[in-house]
Amino acid sequence: MRQTLRRRLQALAAATALGAVLASCAIPVPEVDADPAPTDPVPVLDESRLERVLTSLEETIAAADEAGDASLLEGRVAGAALRIRTAEYALATATAGEETPYTVQPLTGLADVEIVSNTEAWPHTVMVVTEIPDGANVPILLTLEQATPRDSYVLTDWVRLFPGVTMPATSLGSIGSPQVAADADGLVLPPGQVVPAYADVLTNSGSQYAGTFADDSLRSLVAAELAGLTTAVEEAGTVANTVRASDDPVLTLATEDGGAIVVGATVMLQVFTKTIEGATLEVGGRLAALNGNSEVEGSLTATYEQMVAFYVPPAAEGAQITVLGGEHVLTYVAES
């Protein structure tokens, strides 16, 4: 028994010695260094993912356009873009029997220029200059936003670029463009003040901001439309025009020269008031179609929404904000 115990102790000692030898001969496991954190900003979407987003958006819009049903846009279209597309369907229906029915603005998801933000914080912004859609004669600037990591990218605005307009240069797609804070300084105006200032210009001919913006087609259109309406109704009443910034936040991306592309929306109210007793105040076209009749007994308010894109340059003597494009749609008519 003692011999058996002695053999076991000898075996245990031998195993312990062998373990020590193996440990001393073991090859150390190399430590794997973690990938270094990227030092340069990267776009929030790569080209293939953006293409999938745009394809899905185009398919959604095409289905809604075919049905004339704005509910089919939910989840892919929001904000001013959703309100205006909804109004376009209503206009198309109301004018369907007329000689010149309203045509819904053609859109496409085929990208020509992609401007992708490189911010790490949400929301994320993407702007796309499209190819010229079928049935149109100018490219479209689309703005898309992802509110949180769990949300899809949604179309918030589209803007028809004015003929001959030159888009400001932005960073390459492999780098991405920073988003610009609404209160950023160093620009002709901070981005958050651009839309209210432009709304003031559209409302007041003597606006303090009149010289801040270069002349543009939308501004000329609004002024000419108001002048024509004033002449048309002067024997029966008046028409007043006011414009304000919508409640939608602006979307911004930086340009290479330190400026910013700013996209936002305005709301315009045209109020027709009958002021001469016994006279007949009439409206025509799309106003009459949405109102259900042409004669105004008291007053009629027409609401338009505009989606507008701006290039805001760095602050410098004589620098002006350029309006890159716009969309102007009658969205609502109410008589009182």
Automatic annotation (TrEMBL):
Domain of life per record: Bacteria
Signal keyword on record: yes
Keyword check for Signal: yes
DUF8094 domain span: 41-322
Keywords: Signal
Signal peptide range in chain numbering: 1-26
Official protein name in the record: DUF8094 domain-containing protein
Organism: Occultella aeris
